């Protein structure tokens, strides 16, 4: 009989433990939560890691846009490019597509001028046409400038958001002019160096 006492005590302890858990809704919830977490951990450890290849790099875009021309660049096109305008400048935010692309928390800004929405901290504040932001107060404009500084640091500048009647800039011609002026400057510098060498008196 003495040998059976531990098993009876053990059985009584387990019975009381189960009874206490069943009688308390909080304990039941805790047990279910622990069981769910254990299931998720075991399932994750058995799953093989999924490799997601990086998205192909899009060619750099240099172009000015009207508000209407900007609209298609909301991430739904074949190349998935996402553009946004902030304070009159257009940025390529494709690498931040999880925020600004379809399904992202700021998808409403894609293909639009996001300045007013960023100034007022509202994704519902969308601008379809050109917005000169003249009615924003100083705090709101400071917010726009802070956002613009972040965009300049993180994303590529594409061009300008054109005002009504404003002509787009031809960036390819400008780049050619810069190359030509740079070449001319180099040629002048080299000519100046050779000329200076000719005027230098010979050492005796």
UniProtKB/TrEMBL annotation:
GO terms under cellular component: endoplasmic reticulum; membrane
Q: Where is this region: Disordered?
A: 162-204
Q: Name one Pfam family in it.
A: Cyt-b5
Q: Does the keyword Transmembrane helix apply?
A: yes
- Which InterPro entries does the entry link to? Cyt_B5-like_heme/steroid-bd, Cyt_B5-like_heme/steroid_sf, MAPR/NEUFC/NENF-like
| Transmembrane parts of this sequence | 13-39
Judging by the UniProt lineage, the source's domain of life is Eukaryota
The alphabetized UniProt keywords are: Membrane, Transmembrane, Transmembrane helix
Where is the Cytochrome b5 heme-binding domain positioned along the sequence?
65-162
Which ranges are annotated Basic and acidic residues under compositional bias? 162-172
Q: Where is the composition biased (Polar residues)?
A: 182-191
Q: In which family does this protein belong, per the annotation? A: Belongs to the cytochrome b5 family. MAPR subfamily.
| Name by which UniProt lists this protein | Cytochrome b5 heme-binding domain-containing protein
Q: What is the scientific name of the source organism?
A: Photinus pyralis
Organism classification: Eukaryota, Metazoa, Ecdysozoa, Arthropoda, Hexapoda
């Amino acid at each position: 009989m003495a040998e059976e006492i531990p098993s009876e005590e053990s059985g009584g302890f387990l019975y009381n433990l189960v009874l206490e858990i069943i009688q308390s809704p909080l304990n039941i919830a805790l047990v279910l939560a622990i069981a769910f977490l254990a299931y998720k951990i075991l399932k994750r450890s058995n799953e093989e890691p999924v490799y997601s290849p990086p998205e192909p790099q899009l060619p750099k875009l240099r172009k000015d846009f009207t508000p209407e021309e900007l609209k298609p660049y909301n991430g739904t096109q074949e190349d998935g490019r996402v553009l946004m305008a902030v304070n009159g400048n257009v940025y390529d935010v494709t690498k931040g597509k999880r925020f600004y692309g379809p399904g992202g928390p700021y998808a409403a800004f894609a293909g639009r001028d996001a300045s007013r929405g960023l100034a007022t901290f509202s994704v519902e504040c969308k601008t379809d046409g050109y917005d000169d932001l003249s009615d924003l107060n100083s705090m709101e404009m400071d917010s726009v400038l802070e956002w613009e500084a972040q965009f300049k640091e993180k994303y590529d500048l594409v061009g300008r958001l054109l005002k009504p009647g404003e002509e787009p800039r031809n960036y390819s011609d400008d780049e050619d002019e810069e190359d030509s002026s740079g070449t001319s400057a180099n040629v002048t510098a080299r000519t100046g160096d050779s000329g200076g060498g000719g005027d230098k008196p010979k050492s005796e």
